[in-house]
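User: I'm writing a tutorial on reading structure tokens. Could you give me a worked example: one chain, its sequence, then its tokens, then a sentence or two explaining what the tokens reveal?
Assistant: Sure. Here is the example chain.
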Amino acid sequence: MVLATEYTDLLAAFAATGRNHPYLAFTLNGICDRDCVFCKPRCMPDYGHKDTVLSVPEYAAIARTAGQWGVRKAHCSGGEPTLHKDILDIIRALAEGLGTGAQIGMTSHGNFRKGLTVKGLAEAGLTYLNVSLHSTDPGRSAEIMGGGDPGISLATVKEALDLGLKAKINCVLMRSYIEDAFAVAALARSLPVAVRLIELQNIGPAEEMFDTEFIPEAEVRGLLGDWFTGAGEVSRADLGVRSPGRYLQPDGWKGSIGFISNSSCATCSDANRIKITPSGVARPCILHNQDIQLREHLAPGTLDTAFTHLFTAMLERNTNPAWGGYHYVDYDLRWDRMERPQGAAVFLPILATNSGAGCSVRQQQAGAGQ
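And here are its predicted structure tokens:
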């Protein structure tokens, strides 16, 4: 453990900002058995991983240290995380490491490989599940995702709810498929889920379609005006959401609708994810901050020093103008071999902080989060 006064002062400085405590966002792998039109992972020249990925004991060690820092949430994504051969053991290691009351989540397309079930994931420690669903129509869904069955995805959501897990549905907004997105959003009418409508981002394969397919949150809100008239806001605590985001519940609906709008309004200053790649590279910001190789701190037992750097870097989001700009969610975490600035995990001075600027309060609340 770091020196008690430094540790206490750093956590106090973070709490004073009024922001949510950081959580761990693990990208478990870079492979996927889908080929979504806005992602197309297999077209990347470095598809998959050539570096050694973290082992289950290494995930456990990172989680134990994070738990000592008050972290109580870990989220697993990919690629498709359910393709990881050790997915159950990883979920179990994260749950045990973070301790009692931890939230352990995962984003998946919901078409699990043979032998893997929602019940098995829940028994391992999963507490919530985000399912990617971009159309309820099988043919249209196949056009978007390159395969899979939306009926199975929806059945996965319902099974998660029956088992007492929190559930969210992620749907990317595209102009050609806007009616499909509205049909997905309408699932919240009868299901107690949070449907998150995600703006298309001008990155990777989506660059070629962005000019014609991008539709901003403001326009979508106008098209769904009847739904949102008189809608009540659902607290993040009720949804099991710790990250920035605003969720509205239309009158009489069982679920809610939220927006992730990183293209129309970047919200870096209020983000609270510490992203960790499959090989253990921690990135408090995927654009501007120096990476920390967590694996190098495992053998000498110096993970606390790395977390000191990570928490201090999160504080800098509120004062450092370099944090401005777009917060590209998860995209570049699928490949570890990109050239990035490397940082030494040294103790940094605690900075005075203030609230993020540049967006309205509503826009800040609509920031990205798992």
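What the tokens reveal: The chain has one domain: 4-269+360-365. The radius of gyration is 20 Å.
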